[in-house]
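Section handout, structural biology tutorial.
Before the tutorial, make sure you can parse a SMILES string by hand: atoms, branches in parentheses, ring closures as digits. In the record below the ligand is flavin-adenine dinucleotide, and the chain has 397 residues. In the tutorial you will relate the predicted structure tokens back to the input. Do not try to memorize them.
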Amino acid sequence: MDRFDVAVIGGGPSGLHAASLLAEKGLKVLVAEKKREIGSNVICTGIVGKEIFQEFSISPDPVIRNIQIVKVVSSSGNSLHYQHPSTFACIVDRKTFDQALAEKARSAGAEIALGTWVRDVTLGRDGVEIETEGGDAPARTFAARMVILATGIDYRLNKKLGLGVPDDHLLGAQAELEISNEAAATIFIGKSVAPGAFAWAVPTVEGRLRLGLVTSREPRAWFLNLMKKFYPEKMDEFRPESIQIKAIAQGLVSRTYGERVIALGEAAGQVKTTTGGGIYFGLLCSRIAADVIHRCHQAGSFSAQSLSAYEKAWRESIQREIIVGHYARRIFSLFSDAQIERLFDLVKTDGIIPLVQAKGQFDWQSGLLIELAKKVPPLSYFSDIRKKLDLFDRFLS
Ligand SMILES: Cc1cc2nc3c(=O)[nH]c(=O)nc-3n(C[C@H](O)[C@H](O)[C@H](O)COP(=O)(O)OP(=O)(O)OC[C@H]3O[C@@H](n4cnc5c(N)ncnc54)[C@H](O)[C@@H]3O)c2cc1C
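Predicted structure of the complex:
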């Protein structure tokens, strides 16, 4: 039986980055990924903050477009152009992005077993046993000293090993359209567009647009509604079966470590609760996980108590973002379309754009959200919101 120090289950950005960092630290690492090809059929828009490449030492080659200007459109078609002082985000091709991470992990010495679905993980006294099934390949069993669950929204192994799962989800829907004219990245908001969250249209490569939304219910119906409302000329040629749908984790996960196991990335709820973006927090928490696991390796202990340092550290880093973002998005989902229209007028006149330009950070939004909540009078329609956000601010800082 092949033996590893760490077995990572799931070859998405979180699992691959953790594998890379652990292999660089000299650990023997296996990544088991059920897909036959890294990054195939990923449902994602691929928007990441522009600092991500430098911060995590990863290649910017997968970038297909930079974002500096965003158009925000209300359900009545009222629009607002926002220009950030510089490029603040970019769109990556997720397949190339994930494959570059895989290449980096391989170069560092990690083994990546593709087409390898992990059926079961069993905890023993000296390590874990990982049973896999591999399509046409024979079933294999691996042994490791510990396991990382980086399985995205598949929480079967979290449950089996006694870890928590997110208690809230949004539903994402996305499809690609062909467009003839160049458009700015656009965000659509309003109860009659994407109840509970928002929709987007993002130009990618020449002549193509990723249209998508996140919502609390009926993503397919709301996607078709979005098309009819904003792209009626595309309805005839559009194939509804091209809509891809996937859930997105929301909220804190109660427990992300146990005896010889941790959960990482979306499997641990490490996702921005404002937008549903999970790549940045996944990479950030991979780094935290790799540091803690390296220390455990040196100390010769992968006990739950030793691994609890991982949960402590990632919560210190992003818990505030997850809580404030979740709360802010839920409050925003209470706004009626008429209140959103009033908000548009206010944003145009009330010094809010300079505040966003000065304080807006793509991946760290809680500070700006709290500032905005204090500044925007319409929030007083919901009388206790400002008080609660102030309270959060004091509690979390
Ligand atoms: C419509 C939509 C748009 C999005 N847009 C963005 C965006 O613009 N920016 C952003 O940051 N985030 C975005 N996200 C979220 C982002 O895609 C995820 O947060 C991110 O992929 C999570 O990375 P991960 O590595 O934790 O999990 P994943 O990328 O989901 O990877 C998990 C991997 O584990 C594998 N796996 C699962 N179970 C097993 C098993 N038992 N055995 C072997 N392999 C297994 C899966 O095949 C998968 O490859 C979007 C999501 C949706 C739905």
